[in-house]
Amino acid sequence: MPPLTRIVLVGPPGAGKGTQATRLAGKLSVPHISTGDLFRANISRQTALGKRAKVFMDAGHLVPDELTIEMAKDRMRQPDAENGFLLDGFPRNVSQAEALDELLKTEAITLDAVLDLEVPEGEIIKRIAGRRICRSRSAHVFHVSYSPPKKQGVCDVCGDELYQRDDDSEETVRKRLEVYSTQTEPVIEYYKTQGLAVTISSLGSVDEVTRRALEALEREDDDE
User: Fold this and answer.
1) Is 141 annotated as a binding-site member?
2) In which pathway does it act (predicted)?
3) Strands 113-118 vs 162-163: parallel, antiparallel or unpaired
4) Which domains does the chain have, with CATH numbers?
């Protein structure tokens, strides 16, 4: 049986999704396809889709589902995705999940698994709200609990001031979690009804979470 290589990765802000997506894609030898990368690639190449998306992004709005879906469709048809892919940040709602199902159906392929990274809300707030960024162009990153600077409020590398981004404030994090709960958690339930979703804890070291994810995918493979 071929390994599971068509995977959707979901998880709340602060779950380490981007890090795990990159690592898992490398382990599985499939492209890591994130919505952010799709937007940037299309905009930098000035594709028709990119030009349309830029209008919304410049106005501070979310890129509409239909544009995101078209970009994902184009990306998944590239040669390097022929034997699989890891989707990160897409689908972000049930409408996108349904559209993805239709897209895959037209290509006569199916998803293998949906990997859900689970983190308690308190830990998410601690992870994100504890981040401090250096004001220098290098933007060195520290954390008040996990990787604190030697001197409070001062970057170890260049001596510049450390600050908390507005996006990292506890109030903003809670709002982001509300959006995730409203829009993306239903996606997990959607895939659970299809028997595709598998949930793992995203607590622990990066290596531990990667190992846990690969073991979960192997179990899913054995169950098929």
Assistant:
1) yes
2) Purine metabolism; AMP biosynthesis via salvage pathway; AMP from ADP: step 1/1
3) unpaired
4) 6-31+78-223 (3.40.50.300)
> Known binder of ligand: residue 79?
no
Residue 165 catalytic? yes
Please state whether the predicted TM-score (pTM) of the whole model is above 0.85: yes
pLDDT tens string 60-89: 888 898 999 899 989 998 999 988 999 998
Question: Does residue 92 have a known ligand-binding role?
Answer: yes
Local confidence band at 3 (pLDDT 50, 70, 90 cut-offs): low
E-only strand ranges, the chain: 6-10, 32-34, 85-88, 113-118, 131-134, 141-143, 162-163, 197-201
**From 105, 135, 165, 175, active-site residue:** 165
Considering 6, 126, 131, 132, which one is annotated as catalytic? 131
Q: How far apart are CA 31 and CA 24, in angstroms?
A: 10
**Known active-site residue 27:** no
- pLDDT tens for 118-168 read 999 999 999 999 999 999 988 899 999 999 999 999 999 999 999 999 999
Asked if 92 is an active-site residue, the reply is: yes
Separation CA 52–CA 50 (nearest Å): 5
CA angle 109/27/224 to nearest 5° reads 45
Residue 40 annotated as part of some ligand binding site: yes
